[in-house]
Design brief:
alpha+beta, Alpha-Beta Plaits, 8-stranded antiparallel barrel, about 35% strand
Amino acid sequence: MPQTVSLSFFRFDTAFSRAWAFAMMGLARPAMARVPGIGFWKLCGSGTGEGFTPLPNISVYAILAVWPDEDTARAQTSDAAVYKRYQSKAGEHWTVFLTPSQARGEWSGQAPFTVADVELDGPLAALTRATIKPSIMQRFWGRVPSISKVIGSDPNVAFKIGIGEIPWFHQVTFSIWPNAAAMARFARGDGPHGQAIKAVRDGAWFKEELYARFAIVGDAGTWGGESPLSKLQVQT
């Protein structure tokens, strides 16, 4: 069976729950490591606006985890004690389940995703993760607001967010698209994102980077009162 990746988002509405979620960035680590069946995992905060900003959003946190199969992923993200604690404190939570179809690079010195032979002729998700060199941090974050504005106004994007383990130094972008063509038009065009990618390659801005694409298996919960997958419209 193909590996399944879960990405769970939690929104915290009160000052107490937000303080709890912030503390859990450190305190939840032992419990996460003990979840049966879990492989690679990361606890992440998020950015403000569309998420692609250096300013943290103290209301939204995420957990990425790798599982041996979909059944294990669904069972543990629903029933494992640490996930249930997050769910009980959160005002809303949503998990998307993914099958890796492409992956290159490393995350914390590991290649976390095992690629499966799956077709991406419909909706897909994209994830990038980078460790930013301190010497170029100001230039990197100077590029980000224009990218955030463009992706936020793109009607093809069903869901988008910026998350990371450590603010400013680690950046994870995650987005869901109706198809590969729609994503490519955003990523490879002459707009801010395409210009930023060229600057990254020319200047070697990152100490470590990873890029992955995923087939979308399904989801659980809601975000903004509905499943973000309901926004998907297959376009060419």
